[in-house]
TrEMBL record:
Lineage, broadest ranks: Bacteria, Bacillati, Cyanobacteriota, Cyanophyceae, Nostocales
Annotated organism of origin: Calothrix parasitica NIES-267
Top-level taxon: Bacteria
Gene3D superfamilies named in the record: Ribonuclease Inhibitor (3.80.10.10)
InterPro entries found in the cross-reference section: LRR_dom_sf
Protein name: Pentapeptide repeat protein
Amino acid sequence: MTNNQNQPNKYDAVLGGNAPPPIHGAVLGGIEGVKKRLASSDIHVQISALNDALNYGDLGLDTLINTLKHESVRIRQYTYKLLQDKEETQVKQALKDYKFWTGFEKYYEFPTNHATTFANREVIEFEPKIGITETANTAYAIRVADWDFASKPILSTEKLEILQQNPLAHQIEALVIGFWYTKGLSLIDAFLNASENLTNLKALCIGDIHDREYYLTENINISYLLLAYPNLEVIKISFSNFISYTYNKNRLGLEINSIRHENLKALIIECEIIDFELIYEIYNLELPTLEYFELWSITNENGSTLSRLGIKELMQVFYKIFPKLKYLGIRNCKNNLEDLNHVPFGIVESSIIENLVELDLSMGSINDEGAEALLNCPSIKNLDTLDVSDNYLSDEMVERLKQLDIEVIADRQEPDYLDYELISF
């Protein structure tokens, strides 16, 4: 009977009972059986099928990789955990695609030095005498390396002009812009002019400066950049503050107009102070493929923050205009005493958390009350990762959070913010 093809194999599922098999049971053999069980409406049957898929080599891995797109958050989450320790090339690539931001350089304070990596690429200074040598794994930096920019022999605009005239310019995938030293074209105009040559640009960072250099002194309109570069997947704007003001009837600072962009996957706005007007201008963006959104600060120049209701409304809008969002980072929000937990309360009272893979509330002012709101939110269990590091949580609360069946990052907690404020006085 060892060659009887009707007998179930070790990993085959049997429907209808197995006494005596196979007369009263139907064998769902091999990987096809796994796929049929994955189509079940029973979550326990689906999870069992995921475990069994590991027994079918590359076919099983391919099935698991496809399941990362499953409509069920719980199934996606379980599949991700099964694949995390696998060394196969196709698995590593699939996990990179699933959470493409894993290799992003992450700061837990406002950056004071130039970036060494950007968008999973090594940052190297563009040297006109050397030119372009590598494009796929490199982000070229156009920046003045020192605050004493007046002594530099070449302007930023000249560097960009030399770069875009290089025969390999159309292959460049990523650029990092530091302090924009120019006597002519503004940064935005220079990049609009360069778009015809930088046709493959996928990642752009503006504002890569260290603590001795100058901050934003002109108008940066994100929408114009998105319009000029339809292949952009990652854009990062980083400056100390985004306070819009008018000089000689011209608006300076950051600006966002209405636009739809089909390919942008990551938007990072990094600052310490921000105008509420700019936050609401984000509503103008229609980004159907955006998966990663990171916003530093919801505090304006007067020290005020968005209200709990304001944050809830903001999250509801993001839920609609960013339908594919997986990572949400509301970071560096050191609110005043009256607004300590507005961020976690506003988020859990909205729908946005339902589809997230990762929620990052690091560098905030959340205390145990805000963390309790997170714990009481059913959708928190659907996350892969929750980052609440650099807040004001007690050791007991950190332990409670780590009881969740997800990755919890809760390093570098300070004493309760209320106690800290009282002590400081």
